[in-house]
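User: Could you check the structure of this?
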Amino acid sequence: MEVRSPLTGCRGVSLPFSDFAGPLWTDFTFAAEVLDALGKFARSRNWKHLEIRGGVPLPEAPETFQAYETHELDLRPRVEALARGLEPSVRRAIRKAESSGLEATVETGHDALKTFYQLHARTRRRHGLPPQPLSFFLSIGRHLMATGLGRVVIARLAGVPVAGAVFFHSGGRAIYKYGASDTRHWSLRPNQLVMWTAIRHLVQDGCHGLHFGRTSKGDEGLARFKLSWGCVSGPLRYHRYSTGTGTWLPAAPPRAESHPLIFGHLPLPLNRLAGRLIYPHLD
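Assistant: Sure, the predicted structure tokens are below.
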């Protein structure tokens, strides 16, 4: 897809705002010709670069621009078997959440997304990031939730939302896309209850796999959280082709993934405004 912005330029991305969206080859023997045609198309559109996110290894082993890990859980076993595959600490956390009076519900409506967004905006600020605009999540509701391709899981304590997550699913596969929580209630383990509730419902709906999204190489805590559910990890590589040099770019320096500290200190309304202004220029 083409992304146009007067601030960040024009470029092509295999699928903007996605963790992975590699080529869908019908015949891999033509991969070199396809990539060559993509490069020519990128130059004809005056793209700064062309980015391919994940997929099977590309021919001629182009440079890896960014490297991540993936974590995926096989949902084909019964729920009881999945429960046995959890690390003991996760099973204890789920029991604690349930005994603490937390209740998790699976929802798909407009109000559920607005509830999640309130948690999401505060979580992004805590991470030093502006949140996506509310309109972005409402579009998810119209185009995915309303057509049965997604759900929101919200954990509440005495009716007050304390954690939530957004999942997408299609063709028997699901992805954990967004998660958010209130740090004041972490001791009750609401995040584990949200995830376990989602897993049980996805199994009941016939999903056979749950992808936990990408994980940055240095984020050991997040990787441990995903592995604790019984996930299998694997590599995820992004490739970026520069139309200016006609070459695949080498690995991005660490600062390419850093974020200005200012976002973690802005008042919440200003941080949300920053998200509305910035996100139309990102991918």
